[in-house]
Write a structure and sequence with these properties.
Layout (H helix, E strand, L loop, with lengths): L4 E6 L5 H11 L3 E7 L3 H11 L3 E3 L2 H5 L6 E4 L6 H10 L3 E4 L7 H13 L5 E3 L7 H11 L6 E11 L3 H10 L4 H18 L3 E9 L5 H4 L5 E8 L4 E10 L4 E8 L3 E4 L10 E3 L2 E3 L6 H4 L1 H17 L7 H20 L3 E2 L3
Parallel strand pairs: 1-2, 1-4, 2-3, 4-5, 5-6, 7-10
Antiparallel strand pairs: 7-11, 8-9, 8-15, 9-10, 11-12, 13-14
The structure holds 1,4-dihydronicotinamide adenine dinucleotide.
The site of 1,4-dihydronicotinamide adenine dinucleotide (NAI) has 26 residues, from helix 7.
């Protein structure tokens, strides 16, 4: 078994920096050997602060470094497909953030390349599957606790106070829009929990508190109704303007019971009692809410490489969720009921 898996990461932004920190300091069998970003200042800073051996502003140059075993991709979504293909073809194991692609065609190309490199580990960043509460709910379903799951209701709402940071993210690179960028986590969870594929979607949405979303041809807040196989039901709400914080909530209704995850998006176990009453503060954002999940998924990626096995979340999950997210986007833009391509 290899001693330490040597990793190079591309993308050192909002999430990439957290991944880099996890890889550098929190996984004993991993060594973060190289960092890459088009932003030279970020590269220098991270290299200097964390004592990282190699720094690159050009992804192709990083791939020439044969000391590396694996590439971790946390660059903007539009680069994922190209970078996955290049990294696999250069002989590396690959982890890539969601979404797999912004279009079904490019996601299918990636699938082909992943299938050609079966000896390489490939993992997509659907970290919610590695969150302890979401994994616990999955176990309950597998144990038959709620009978047959028939309906899923999901909220994925970004905090209103993070809107400026989000606008910067959305304007610097095309993200695919609300459904492909945000609702995609829920679309993946829905397939995972319901054990069924989506057939038809109807998405609506608009720009309410922030009209600038219209200029981006995107929805600030939106909802999707999805018909799954066997008439199972999905109800999805996604948004960027949640007053009370980062609200990620999921409900799975079965024939014998219901599971809810994150009904109150609590920051922690503290209740503040003051002149306003008894207050449970809410989660601030994805880095706080999914801290454990980001670490656990990276640990799983490294373990898969060392143990020569593939993770349970597959490239096919990446392709199908992309097709589904894209169908939602199309329905939102056309106002039509859309059949999901499969
Ligand atoms: P960001 O915009 O904050 O950071 C992007 C980083 O990539 C920056 O360091 C930028 O300089 C660098 N970059 C841009 N173009 C590049 C190129 N061609 N080659 C190399 N580096 C390049 O973006 P953020 O929020 O960190 O998102 C990155 C990815 O992670 C996106 O695909 C996003 O969908 C995903 N993401 C996933 C989340 C999750 O919960 N799983 C949460 C947030 C983001």
């Amino acid at each position: 078994m290899m001693e330490k898996v040597k990793v190079g990461i591309v993308g050192l932004g909002r999430l990439g920096r957290r991944h880099a920190e996890n890889l550098a300091f929190r996984i004993p069998n991993c060594e973060l050997l190289a960092v890459c970003s088009v932003n030279a200042e970020e590269v220098e800073q991270v290299q200097h602060d964390w004592n990282i051996k190699y720094g690159y502003t050009d992804f192709d140059r990083m791939l020439e470094n044969k000391e590396l075993d694996a590439i971790f991709i946390s660059s903007p979504s539009g680069f994922h497909c190209e970078q996955i293909q290049k990294a696999l073809n250069a002989g590396f194991h690959v982890f890539c953030e969601k979404p797999l692609g912004l279009y079904l065609e490019e996601a299918l190309l990636v699938q082909e390349v992943v299938r050609k490199h079966k000896d390489k580990v490939f993992m997509i960043g659907f970290m919610r599957r590695y969150d302890k509460s979401y994994a616990y709910a999955k176990k309950k379903i597998e144990e038959g606790k709620i009978g047959e799951p028939i309906l899923i209701r999901c909220y994925s709402l970004d905090p209103a106070k993070a809107i400026r940071g989000f606008m910067q993210f959305a304007k610097s690179n095309y993200s695919g829009g609300l459904f492909l960028d945000m609702a995609i986590h829920d679309l993946d969870l829905a397939r995972w929990y319901l054990g069924a594929e989506a057939k038809q979607v109807w998405a609506v949405g608009g720009a309410y508190a922030h009209p600038e979303f219209r200029e981006l041809n995107d929805a600030e807040t939106g909802a999707v109704l999805v018909k799954f196989e066997n008439d199972k039901i999905g109800i999805f709400v996604a948004g960027r303007n949640c007053a009370h914080g980062y609200h990620i909530e999921t409900e799975i209704i079965g024939t014998k019971g219901t599971l809810r995850i994150g009904t109150i998006p609590e920051k922690n176990m503290v209740t503040v009692f003051d002149e306003n009453g008894a207050i449970k503060e809410c989660s601030d954002g994805f880095l706080e809410r999914f801290e454990q999940a980001y670490l656990s998924e990276a640990e799983e990626f490294i373990s898969c490489i060392r143990e020569n096995r593939q993770p349970k979340v597959t490239v096919e999950d990446g392709v199908i969720s992309t097709a589904l997210g894209y169908a939602c986007k199309k329905s939102f833009e056309t106002g039509e009921l859309v059949n999901v391509e499969s």
